[in-house]
Amino acid sequence: MQDLNEMAIFAVVVGCGSFTKAAEKLKLPKSTVSRKVSQLEKRVGVRLINRTTRNLKPTETGKLYYENCMKMLEQAEEADRIVNNMQSEPTGLLRISTPLACGIPFFTDIFKRFSRLYPKVSLEIISDNKNLDMLDEEIDIAFRIGPLEDSSLVARNLGTARLSLCASPEYLAEFGVPKSVDDLQNHHCIMHSTYSWVFMTKNGEEVPNIQSRLTANDVEMIRMLALDDFGIGAVPQLLIADDVRAGKLKLLLQDTPFQERTFYMVYPSRREPPSKVVAFTEFMLENCVNPPWEQLSGVFSARSQDDLGETSFIGRAEELAAS
Question: What is the CATH number of domain 163-259+296-322?
Answer without folding.
Answer: 3.40.190.10
